[in-house]
């Protein structure tokens, strides 16, 4: 296949990628917002749910974290199945299932049901995040992915911007309506959109450029040529595409460990931020929602700026390390300044910016040396390792808070593990190509 540089003008190539981005990224962005809201709205629900059901901090922490047990167990099989049956059908199946389970959380009445539904929610959502990452690699070569990942993953931050005030409003405005509590309405109203969007996925997404009727043949050739050149470059450079090798590759395992430590920071703050803010003396759920929205708004800006600079320079690992260092300083600072709410909130904002800015750059690393089935398995394995942090951090924070009455020491611990996770990336072997440096 001829190079796109030889057969198409740079303007046509840019117009093609712009067309793809306008078609895919806003929709994927919306899917991720709904996914993340369903995953972490338990953080707001627990402002009322714990007292209503008599759950301790440790019970809440375990329930928040047990989501990731089901998620991790089914992550790799889910991504391999997506590679086999196609992204459109599999992403739709994931969303419909998790929407139903998430809405069913409104019926929780005991610890056993709490743990069971959180576990089932993890099974339902397993494969979504790595599946979307893999799906993006079907359309974009590695040198474009940090910006694309950032535009998609900024949904993590925007879900906080939207979800905080929305969750706070639902908790306060719907309490008692139809005899249901605010947290029951929260699960229902934030769970059903996933099912609706899952049905829309079946009609809107295409498995790959070749099946996209909204692209011309020339536009399809631009996309496929760039991806084929990248695949040939990987083969020429000795990069593996074997499933077994992907699952045992030292780089995959190192990135999995690094991602685990980083996501301890992400989920530590995602699940506990509302309660941390309340611990600073702010008690109204709506006000808590607006404050968390401010933190995530700053993080959204940080994600875009850092990713743009990473793509511009072609450098990845140092960007990740600096973001991790900044985020770690924010976590540690919040742990030492809880007696001063204003300073502590600033420190938490810095922590949130640091940890979220890492994510879109991080995913350029494995997708730069994995492709095909190996990418499906490798990306899922890394994400599985990482999301073990989603179990460890919330549960660990719950135990620490129950034992000490404060989250201060837990925040300092999150800072340490975030720093270690970002530092590990520096020892990853790379080469001179963009996307791996």
Give the arrangement of secondary structure elements.
Blueprint: H1 4-7, H2 10-40, H3 42-53, H4 57-73, H5 75-85, H6 87-104, H7 111-125, H8 128-137, H9 145-173, H10 182-204, H11 217-236, H12 243-248, H13 250-279, H14 285-313, H15 317-336, H16 341-362, H17 364-369, H18 372-404, H19 408-424
Helix pairs in contact: 2-6, 2-9, 2-10, 3-10, 3-13, 4-7, 4-18, 5-6, 5-8, 5-18, 6-7, 6-8, 6-10, 8-18, 9-10, 9-14, 9-16, 13-14, 13-16, 13-18, 13-19, 14-16, 15-16, 15-19, 18-19
CATH architecture: Up-down Bundle
Helix run count: 19
Q: Roughly how many Å is the radius of gyration? A: 21 Å
Kindly identify the CATH topology. Growth Hormone, Chain: A
Task: Kindly give the count of domains.
Answer: 1
SSE class:
mainly alpha
Oligomer: single chain
What profile does the largest beta sheet have?
none
Order of helices and strands: HHHHHHHHHHHHHHHHHHH
Give a quick rundown of the structure.
With 437 residues, the chain is mainly α. The chain has 19 helices and no strands. It has helices at 4-7, 10-40, 42-53, 57-73, 75-85, 87-104, 111-125, 128-137, 145-173, 182-204, 217-236, 243-248, 250-279, 285-313, 317-336, 341-362, 364-369, 372-404, 408-424.
């Amino acid at each position: 296949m001829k190079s796109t540089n030889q057969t198409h003008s740079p303007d046509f190539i840019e117009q093609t990628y712009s067309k793809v981005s306008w078609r895919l990224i806003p929709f994927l962005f919306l899917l991720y917002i709904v996914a993340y809201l369903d995953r972490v709205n338990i953080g707001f629900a627990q402002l009322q749910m714990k007292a209503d059901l008599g759950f301790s901090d440790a019970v809440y922490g375990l329930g928040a974290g047990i989501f990731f047990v089901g998620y991790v167990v089914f992550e790799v099989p889910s991504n391999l199945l997506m590679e086999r049956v196609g992204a459109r059908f599999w992403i739709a199946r994931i969303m419909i299932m998790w929407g139903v389970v998430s809405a069913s959380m409104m019926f929780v009445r005991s610890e056993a049901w709490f743990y069971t539904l959180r576990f089932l929610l993890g099974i339902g959502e397993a494969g979504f995040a790595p599946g979307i990452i893999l799906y993006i690699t079907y359309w974009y070569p590695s040198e474009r992915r940090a910006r694309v990942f950032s535009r998609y993953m900024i949904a993590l931050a925007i879900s906080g911007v939207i979800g905080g005030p929305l969750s706070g409003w639902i908790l306060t405005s719907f309490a008692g309506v139809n005899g249901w509590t605010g947290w029951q309405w929260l699960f229902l109203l934030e769970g059903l959109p996933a099912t609706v969007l899952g049905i829309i996925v079946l009609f809107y997404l295409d498995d790959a450029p070749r099946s996209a009727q909204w692209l011309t043949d020339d536009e399809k050739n631009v996309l496929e040529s760039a991806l084929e050149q990248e695949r040939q470059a990987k083969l020429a450079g000795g990069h593996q595409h074997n499933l077994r090798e992907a699952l045992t590759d030292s780089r995959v395992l190192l990135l999995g460990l690094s991602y685990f430590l980083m996501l301890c920071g992400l989920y530590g703050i995602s699940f506990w931020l509302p309660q941390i803010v309340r611990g600073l003396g702010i008690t109204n759920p709506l006000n808590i929602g607006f404050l968390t929205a401010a933190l995530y708004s700053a993080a959204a800006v940080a994600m875009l700026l850092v990713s743009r600079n990473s793509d511009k320079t072609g450098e990845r690992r140092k960007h990740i390390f600096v973001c991790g260092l900044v985020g770690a300083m924010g976590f540690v600072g919040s742990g030492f300044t809880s007696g001063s709410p204003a300073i502590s909130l600033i420190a938490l904002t810095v922590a949130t910016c640091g940890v979220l800015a890492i994510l879109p750059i991080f995913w350029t690393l494995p997708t730069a040396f994995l492709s095909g089935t190996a990418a499906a398995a490798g990306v899922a394995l890394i994400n599985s390792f990482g999301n073990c942090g989603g179990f460890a951090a919330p549960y660990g924070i719950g135990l620490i808070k129950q034992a000490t009455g404060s989250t201060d020491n837990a925040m300092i611990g999150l800072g340490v593990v975030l720093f270690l996770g970002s530092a590990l990336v520096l020892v990853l072997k790379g080469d001179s190509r963009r996307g791996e440096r």
